[in-house]
Amino acid sequence: MDATHDGPHADHLGDIDRHTQLWVQWDGDDYEFVRLSPCDEPAEDDDACTLFAGHDPGHSWEMRDLPHG
């Protein structure tokens, strides 16, 4: 997927428990593994956001139909 924002990027690697997820975050060649809470913002159709709490604006359901370049 192409980057759609400036700054660090992240990818979900797995769930540790229902309150903690393992993510890898990177910015250029620098990366780190981090434990983050899931975003708990519900969508209008009751679909939960699949990103982490405190992510940049734009929930996962708002990005489903973005064109890929």
Layout of secondary structure:
Layout: E1 9-17, E2 20-27, E3 30-36
Antiparallel strand pairs: 1-2, 2-3
Short synopsis of the structure:
The chain is mainly beta. The protein contains no helices and three strands.
Mind explaining what this structure looks like?
The chain is mostly beta strands and 69 residues long. The protein contains no helices and 3 strands. It has strands at 9-17, 20-27, 30-36. The mean pLDDT is 82.
How do the SSEs run, as a string of H and E?
EEE
Distance between the termini: 8 Å
Structural class: mainly beta
Biggest sheet strand order reads 1-2-3
* Helix percent band: under 10%
List keywords for this structure.
mainly beta, globular, 3 strands, single chain, 3-stranded antiparallel sheet, 69 residues
